Amino acid sequence: MPETLLSVQGLHSGYGEVQVLHGVSVEVNRGEIVALLGANGAGKSTLINTACRLVSGTSGTVRFDGRDVSRARPQDIVGAGLIQVPEGRRIFPNLTVLENLELGACRRATRQLKANLEWVLDTFPRLRERLGQRAGTMSGGEQQMLAIGRGLMGDPRLLILDEPSLGLSPLMVEEMFGLVRRLHKEGLSILLVEQNVALSLEIASRAYVLENGEVRFSGTPGTLLAAPELRAAYLGV
């Protein structure tokens, strides 16, 4: 029986009077890569930001590792090991690479900071070469590596990646998905929020498709790709 790590049930959320999510239910089991797919405006970022308490839901529940975190503080959710790498990287451009990485461990994993730093630098050798460089002077691909590395510094139990391939060259996109695959093989559970459907479905255990704030499909990539009407309606493939 799979062990549920993140359970979102009946979630309603939005911004002021604008309702974005309408009763969304999503689960991520331990050891999975789950792809969360959908067009711009479908509600993907609202879903993960509500799960991480960066946006307040109006109803529904969010449970992480069996604990109800629907009203928890964002910093406590990070402390529990639910860590998001946000869309657009959101690094601190005037801080060095090392300073950005160290900030990733400020709420969790401070005792193993040195060990985690070595792990991250082994995973991203280019970051090791640029530890003293200001983050804002790096290329887009290197900044994405830094954003993911900063997330890994917090020793996540579930890592949420929000559009990690956004704005990257085709070569860097392939490299980024290879990295996600490698992190999963090392035992990390991942919720992957992406618009690159083909590559996401290649590596995902299961997938959800959001449309207009509702789940229109959930199941295995094989099931999704085997249904022409689903491919055409929701994935454009």
Name the descriptors.
2 domains; Rossmann fold; 237 residues; alpha/beta; 37% helix; six-stranded mixed sheet; 10 helices; globular
Proportion of residues in β-strands: 25-35%
Overall pLDDT confidence: 90
- The CATH architecture of the largest domain would be 3-Layer(aba) Sandwich
Q: Any low-confidence stretches, pLDDT <50, length ≥5?
A: none
Tell me how many strands there are.
10
Give the termini distance in whole angstroms: 33 Å
- Provide a count of the helices: 10
Which class do the helix and strand fractions yield?
A: alpha/beta
Order of helices and strands: EEEHEEHEHHHHEHEHEEHH
Instruction: Write down the Rg.
Output: 17 Å
What top-tier CATH class of the largest domain fits best? Alpha Beta
Give the strand line-up of the largest sheet. 6-7-8-3-9-10
Overall 3D shape: globular
Largest sheet report = 6 strands, mixed
Give the CATH superfamily of the largest domain: P-loop containing nucleotide triphosphate hydrolases
Write down the domain tally.
2
Helix content: 25-40%
CATH topology of the largest domain: Rossmann fold
Q: Report the oligomer.
A: single chain
Domain ABC transporter: 6-237
Enzyme class: hydrolase
Keywords: Amino-acid transport, ATP-binding, Cell inner membrane, Cell membrane, Hydrolase, Membrane, Nucleotide-binding, Transport
GO molecular function: ATP binding; ATP hydrolysis activity; branched-chain amino acid transmembrane transporter activity
